[in-house]
Specification:
The protein contains 23 helices and 10 strands. It has 520 residues and is of the alpha/beta class. Strand 5, helix 16 and strand 6 form a beta-alpha-beta unit. The chain is globular, with a radius of gyration of 24 Å. The structure holds flavin-adenine dinucleotide (FAD).
């Protein structure tokens, strides 16, 4: 077991000024008022002293510590340093657009309230939402991701690149798509009269006639589409075959306007979805060609059904056993969500049935506060686990489940433990030893964020485990949501940040003492 308290090994590659900047950054994160109002303070700073000075201050502090640079060239020194320490880099273009728009002129109403209003009132997005600018921006993001995938391949084999689906389309569209997917899931439950998880041909016919006024040709078309002609369908196949683009055809025959017909996408939305899928396929194709694994980040729950559907589509093509020997596409599972164990089991089973390799990145989840607040404002039950211990249990059980599956399956199953939680890493190492999984085996690797938990990454790397750093980059202004999340994450005394701060201070003291001894 690596010694995760070995500060000398953890910070070996950091210069003294870098350690001082790290100390300053973690120190700032421990000032609650700064973290709480960071977004407003930065906006104010930009107004008063301008962008250049604000960006300059950020580069000397949070940006300089948590991001590797503004573009692919600037991040190279950081990547080479990691490489020297036996640590791989996961390039992560961290520019974000959360689809919440600019709330600057909207008085006291919070972003969450506005989102909640839209969801409650079912305000279908109008053409104005999907303007040329957002599509052009997505095309520019695709170019950046292409470069990122190429750069990873140039660094050597077995590399990873991370992408966010909200960068490939307008997030509003993902929200609409997600609702369509959830309604298609609800339809399954309505057709499954006896609740046994299987819709038979008779149940389908009955449900169809109850909810739709379609002619025989339409019913037969639907039966064919769901491969029900002479059998039954379970949820795994149903969710694979009934996509949001199928809904308008189906809902044209709805007996009455309900949530399903309201969720059906418009022609324009279908066109934009297709464009998003094209972008995804372009990137996945390139990743498969150069042998880079593509990690698809998990985001807010209101986008996640659409993201899962997108990932599933790519996995089926690029992870297929006849196409690749390993999973090119990884999905991300946020273990703070109550539904993760079920989703994980369903997705694993689907990969077995449809013959493709399975790749998963396991995280605890970065949007807990906003998810809880949004659910509360909508009057929905929170999707988040009730206690932190439930999240820890879900995380550790998911690791065990996937490790066991990897050993049993005749296909490849790979997992990345993306976590700063030492206990989860130690438990995983115990399980690896128990199941005889070699530390160099591609089945399992460990990932931490750049600028965080160097004691874990560098000590894992030093002991020959497959250790990686997520290396975020992007223009200062564009990575602000990422930086604010990092500041929040490192703000509590209970977080690993306090321990990290102590380790950095000790290492600096050790270096000063060492210099005195040499000098004296
Ligand atoms: C390499 C890497 C990639 C990542 N990619 C993503 C991504 O794609 N999507 C994403 O959302 N996040 C991502 N994250 C961030 C991650 O989800 C966490 O925010 C962060 O890593 C802290 O989790 P931890 O496992 O280190 O856990 P710890 O620090 O041990 O636990 C903190 C986490 O536990 C959960 N938690 C805290 N309090 C409670 C509570 N009261 N009840 C229930 N749960 C609670 C929260 O998720 C919180 O973040 C990534 C992290 C890493 C290291």
């Amino acid at each position: 077991m690596p010694d995760f308290n070995d500060a000398e090994a953890a910070y070996e590659s950091k210069t003294n000024p870098e350690l001082i900047r790290a100390m300053l950054s973690f120190g700032l994160c421990q000032i609650p008022i700064l973290v709480r109002y960071s977004e407003r303070l930065l906006k104010l700073g930009r107004k008063i002293v301008g962008d250049t000075i604000t960006d300059g201050i950020l580069k000397q502090t949070l940006f300089g510590h948590f991001c590797a640079g503004e573009d692919e060239k600037q991040i190279l020194p950081a990547i080479h340093k990691l490489e020297k320490a036996g640590i791989g880099s996961i390039l992560d273009f961290a520019a974000e657009d959360d689809g919440e728009g600019d709330d600057g002129d909207d008085g006291d109403r919070s972003k969450k309230e506005k989102i909640a209003d839209e969801i409650i009132q079912d305000k279908s997005p109008k053409v104005r939402v999907y303007d040329y600018e957002s599509e052009a921006k997505c095309d520019r993001h695709v170019e950046t991701f292409h470069k990122c995938i190429r750069d990873v391949a140039d660094l050597g084999k077995d590399g990873y690149a991370a992408i966010k689906v909200t960068a490939l389309t307008n997030p509003k569209l993902l929200e609409r798509m997600s609702r369509a997917i959830v309604e298609a899931q609800n339809l399954f439950a309505k057709f499954d009269e006896n609740g046994d998880g299987i819709v038979t041909k008779d149940e389908f016919k009955h449900g169809f006639n109850l909810f739709f006024k379609g002619e025989d040709a339409m019913l037969n078309d639907a039966l064919d589409h769901l491969q029900l002609a002479d059998g039954s369908v379970d949820y795994i196949t149903w969710s694979m075959l009934l996509t949001p683009s199928d809904l308008p055809r189906l809902t044209a025959g709805c007996r009455e306007v309900g949530p399903l017909s309201l969720a059906a996408p418009t022609d324009e939305e279908i066109e934009l979805m297709e464009r998003m899928f094209e972008r995804g396929h372009e990137l996945a194709r390139q990743a498969a060609e150069v042998g880079t694994r593509l990690l698809i980040d998990a985001e807010q729950a209101r986008f996640q059904p659409a993201i899962d559907n997108f990932v599933l589509n790519l996995q089926r093509t690029y992870n297929a056993t006849g196409v690749s020997e390993f999973p090119v596409i990884y999905n991300t599972y946020q273990c703070y969500l109550k539904d993760v164990p079920d989703r994980l089991r369903t997705d694993v089973e689907r990969s077995e049935r449809f013959d493709y390799h399975f790749g998963a990145k396991l995280v605890r989840g970065a949007y807990m506060e906003s998810e809880r607040a949004l659910a509360k404002s909508l009057g929905f039950p929170s999707p988040i686990q009730d206690t932190i211990q439930d999240t820890h249990d879900c995380y550790n059980n998911s690791v065990d489940f996937l490790l066991k599956h990897a050993i049993q399956s005749d296909k490849t199953c790979e997992l990345m433990l993306a976590t700063h939680n030492q206990e989860s890493i130690e438990k995983a190492i115990h399980s690896m030893n128990e199941h005889g999984v070699n530390r160099k085996d591609p089945t399992i690797c460990f990932g931490q964020l750049f600028g965080m938990s160097d004691n874990l990454t560098f000590n894992l790397g030093r002991h020959g485990y497959r250790a990686y750093k997520y290396v975020p980059y992007g223009e200062v202004k564009m990575v602000m949501p990422y930086l604010i999340r990092r500041a929040n994450e490192n703000s509590s005394i209970a977080s690993g940040a306090a321990q990290e701060l102590r380790m950095i201070q000790n290492e600096l003291k050790r270096r000063v003492r060492g210099r005195r001894t040499v000098a004296g």
